[in-house]
Structure formats: structure tokens, C-alpha cells
Write a structure and sequence with these properties.
heterodimer; A: about 260 residues; mainly alpha; 2 domains; 13 helices; about 75% helix; disordered N terminus; B: about 120 residues; 3 domains; flat; transmembrane helix (chain B); transmembrane (chain B); Brnchd-chn_aa_trnsp_AzlD (chain B); AzlD domain-containing protein (chain B)
Chain lengths: ~260, ~120
């Protein structure tokens, strides 16, 4: 893991500017202090994936407001849950008057995908000296956008600075989007209805494209298509447990397809 | 026991902590704990991923077919056409999310202003 970074640093130091794909200081000098790496991570939060995420939080705020969640509660939800799919499931449970245990079960199921993501990220960040509680704290920042950014860029950060860099990425994304949610609540009532409709369309389009792009195997695409169809179908047939049913049935059918294809 | 059923100011926050924070961070913490111990392509993880993917896809499907707020007043056919063509644009552009999202949004707005 150290070798590609070291090679990159050696090549980059004489003429760093020509490597400035994102900004002229990326990656910072390998001898740069910790604060520089934190700020560099914070800057990564304003890259294209970061901006797309901001627009989906605009959509989320519109959704939450519509469900009867207050601005403070939505800001609290953004900081404590920090996974847009789970937050949308939670707001869906709020809107349909789901009882706490059922809401908890649905959100738990929607968040399972975070576990393999964290499992893939931890080896990238851990060095011999990394303290375990730092990793537990940083794992709260793991969600699709920060994970994609980290997996793409951590390789070019010196191993001892990776936790700092990721704290910069995650902390900035969370803080920025808490502000975004609060601002949208303040202005939402003044928007024309076509604009509100367009905002509510952002979330499904963001998930549709990001989920398709992040699927590692073909079976992920199969599961996605099944879920898209089963969700609305079970919404009519089993309105109280539609998401759970679609997840369990769609997931198991896709998994069966996966096993069948591997045998064939 | 639902989010809006109890008038106490703290109830929604407790609801978010239990059904939101605890329900998501349990998986993040478990991921740190298991990091490196379980293989990424183990069969159990494949099943876990397909169920989670299908569930989130179900959320997407419901947001398009049974939306809330201002989107609920738009025609279903317009929403489905906008999303489908947006997705085609996403694939055709080499999986560029911006292209897909912008296409769907422009089609939706065009449809609304032309009164489809």
C-alpha cells in the first residue's frame, strides 16, 4: 500500500502543479502537517460527488418537510443517521405512521449495506498505530459519497494521515449538509410547485444512478430491478411492510439467480 | 408508537436515535469490528447485499410511483418517462450521474410547463 504513494510523491514534488487534477495542492507535499491533510479532505467534499450529494439533501429536506418532520429534527437526523437511503426509509416510516419497532427493523435492513463498505474501508485507513476508537468514530461518516471519495483518493494520502484526511472529508460533508437541510426548510414554502416537484425527484434519481453504479456484481443489478418493481407492488398488496417484503423477497430471488448462474 | 403520535418534544428525537442512529451505526461498528475478518465475496455478504439493494430499490420505486408533496400532483406517466429516459441518458453517457439526473429533471419540468 505504501509503495504507490511513495512513488507518486517522488514524481510529484518537482512539478506538483501539473498533477493538480482537482486543485494545485492535491496531493499535498508528503511532509505537510496534519492540518493540511484535514483541509485537503475538507476540499474533497466539494468535488462533483459532493455537489450531487448536496442536491440530494435538498431533495431530502423537501421530503422530510412534507412528512411533518421539523427543521431541527431533520438537522438532527442528518447528523445522527447520515445515510440518505436509511433517512429516506425513516421519513417514509414517519409519513405512513409506522410504529417504532417496524420503523427500526426497516431502517436496520436498509443500512446493512454500510457494513461491507466499512469493512472495505478500514484496511485502507488502519496502520499499526491507529487507535480502535478513532476507527469507530470515523465509521459514522461512512455513506455512499464519502466512501466513493475515500476509496478513490486514500491511496494517494500517506498512511499515517489517512484517518485525518477522512475526518476532513466526512466532517465537512456532514456539516455542509446539515446547513443545506436547514436552509431548504427556510425557503421551501416560497418555491413554485413545479420546482418543489423537481426537488422531490432528485432523491430517486440520485439513488437510481448511484446504486446502479456502485453495484459490484451483476446480481446487484438484478436485485435493483426486482426491488424497483416489487416496492410499488407490495405497497398495494402489503402496505405496512412493503419495503421489508420487497427487500427480503427481491434479495432472495436475486441471490437464487446468482447461485443458479454460478452452477450453470 | 409512531413518530407523530406522541406530543412530547423529545419523542421524535428518541425515535430518530433508536430507529435511525442505532439502526445504522450498528452496521458501521460491526464493519469496523469485522474489518478484514470476513471475505468481501463470502456468500453471506452477497445475500446481505442483494437484500439491502432490493430494499433501497423498493424505496426508489415507491418515491416514483407513490410520491408525496408537489410531486404527487404530477402525472404518473410523466414521472416514469422522465426517470426512464434519465436513466438511459445516464447509461449512454458512460454512467455519468449528472447527465442522468439533469435529463430526468429537465423532462419533468418541460412536461409540467407544457401541461402534459
Amino acid at each position: 500500500m505504501e509503495r504507490p504513494y511513495a512513488a507518486f510523491g517522488a514524481v510529484a514534488s518537482p512539478g506538483r502543479a501539473c498533477y493538480g487534477r482537482h486543485m494545485s495542492t492535491w496531493p499535498p507535499d508528503s511532509t505537510a502537517p496534519r492540518s493540511t491533510w484535514f483541509l485537503s479532505g475538507a476540499g474533497a467534499a466539494f468535488s462533483l460527488p459532493g455537489l450531487i450529494l448536496i442536491s440530494s439533501f435538498v431533495g431530502f429536506a423537501a421530503l422530510a418537510k412534507d412528512a411533518g418532520v421539523t427543521a431541527t429534527q431533520a438537522a438532527f437526523m442528518t447528523g445522527t443517521v447520515w445515510a440518505l437511503p436509511s433517512m429516506v426509509v425513516l421519513v417514509g416510516a414517519v409519513a405512513s405512521g409506522t410504529a417504532l419497532p417496524a420503523a427500526m427493523f426497516a431502517v436496520t435492513l436498509s443500512a446493512i449495506r454500510l457494513m461491507p463498505m466499512v469493512m472495505a474501508l478500514v484496511p485502507e485507513m488502519r496502520t499499526g498505530k491507529t487507535r480502535q476508537h478513532v476507527l469507530y468514530l470515523l465509521s459514522h461518516f461512512v455513506a455512499v459519497t464519502s466512501w466513493v471519495l475515500a476509496m478513490e483518493r486514500l491511496k494517494r494520502v500517506p498512511p499515517s494521515m489517512r484517518t485525518t484526511y477522512y475526518a476532513g472529508v466526512g466532517g465537512t460533508l456532514v456539516t455542509t449538509n446539515i446547513i443545506v437541510v436547514t436552509v431548504v426548510y427556510a425557503v421551501a414554502d416560497a418555491l413554485p410547485s413545479a420546482v418543489s416537484a423537481a426537488l422531490l425527484m432528485l432523491t430517486p434519481m440520485y439513488f437510481l444512478t448511484s446504486l446502479w453504479g456502485s453495484a459490484r456484481e451483476r446480481v446487484g443489478h438484478v436485485a435493483m430491478v426486482l426491488g424497483l418493481v416489487l416496492g410499488p407492488l407490495f405497497h398495494i398488496l402489503l402496505p405496512r411492510i412493503d419495503l421489508l417484503a420487497a427487500g427480503l423477497v427481491g434479495g432472495m430471488v436475486a441471490y437464487g439467480w446468482h447461485l443458479w448462474r454460478r452452477k450453470a | 408508537m409512531s413518530y407523530l403520535s406522541n406530543g412530547a418534544w423529545w419523542w421524535p428525537y428518541l425515535f430518530i436515535l433508536l430507529a435511525g442512529f442505532a439502526a445504522t451505526d450498528v452496521w458501521r461498528f460491526l464493519g469496523v469490528y469485522l474489518g478484514g475478518k470476513l471475505s468481501e465475496d463470502s456468500d453471506l455478504l452477497v445475500l446481505v447485499r442483494t437484500m439491502a439493494t432490493a430494499l433501497v430499490a423498493a424505496v426508489i420505486g415507491n418515491l416514483i410511483v407513490f410520491p408525496g408533496g408537489a410531486l404527487a400532483h404530477t402525472p404518473l406517466a410523466l414521472r416514469i418517462v422522465a426517470v426512464a429516459l434519465g436513466f438511459v441518458a445516464y447509461l449512454a453517457s458512460g454512467k455519468r450521474m449528472v447527465v442522468g439526473i439533469a435529463t430526468a429533471e429537465l423532462l419533468l419540468l418541460a412536461g409540467l410547463y407544457l401541461n402534459f
